[in-house]
Write a structure and sequence with these properties.
Blueprint lengths: L2 E3 L6 E3 L1 E4 L18 H14 L3 E3 L7 H9 L7 E6 L12 H15 L4 E7 L3 H6 L1 H11 L3 E7 L2 H10 L4 E5 L6 H5 L1 H6 L3 E5 L19 H10 L8 H14 L5 E5 L5 H10 L5 H14 L9
Parallel strand pairs: 3-4, 3-10, 4-5, 5-6, 6-7, 7-8, 8-9, 9-10
Antiparallel strand pairs: 1-2
Length: about 300
Amino acid sequence: MEKRQYGNTDLQVSVLGHGGGELGGLGAAELHPKKLEVSEAVRVLSTALDTGVNVIDTAECYNDSEELIGQAISHRRKEFYLFTKCGHSQGFELPHWHKDMLEASIDRSLRRLRTDYLDVVHLHTCSEAILRQGDAIDVLLRAKEKGKIRYIGYSGDHKEALYAVRCGAFDSLMTSVNIADQEAIELTIPEAARAGLGITAKRPVANVVWRYEALPQNPYHHDYWHRLKQLNYDALQRSFREGFAMALRFTLSVPGIHTAIIGTTNPARWGVNAEVARQGPLSEADYASIRAEWKIRAGADWIGLE
């Protein structure tokens, strides 16, 4: 699988990474409501690594995702970069973003993931006010000095992500970008690229919400479902496979993107994902057509979504 230099870091990341949200039952939870067994996590994550994926992303609040990753593939730790996020206080009595909670959360992630260090830790969608206050960034910097973290980042969108890029504190930006979420293509990604940040695309296939004929049950999908109804891309009216390929290749075509994080609990998906990635970027004409449709039809309030 193609590797890309992750900004000014020394990471050579695969163009596709595995997102751990669905391992914890998030995002497409209605498709797999039962708790994932360790043996199932082993199959999914081992297949991803065997396919050439070398980025595994998760978060402290993705239920038992960190524990599953640690149990499933910690013995292969040298084969992949481990990204996680911090900020939400599940399991702690302290409030979100409290500096003591953040420090404890990082240590807990290390234990759960069965590792001595984390390649990237992102602040998980905190407000601009929290960023400006500075304590959360300081916690990450101290963890970096202690060798617990190699690089620090911000995960989020819209004006908060723009401030994070401009403040100069971060090595990495994780932001939403896909056929239904294109604000970052002009607002943050160019500046992040110029600043030498590694850039990770989250939600790169818009949660494949076009597979639903009616509004899906999970509210997590509602905004994208409504947006894609208005955008009405031709490729999404054809086969699911063609629509998926168009959506993923669009995100991988965005200038500045280094890796795109895809969540799945189905090991077979990794062969399909890798095949699509090997097709490379869309043609300039196809990419321009999707961007043009967005500029014509996108609502003024269609900001980047977490």
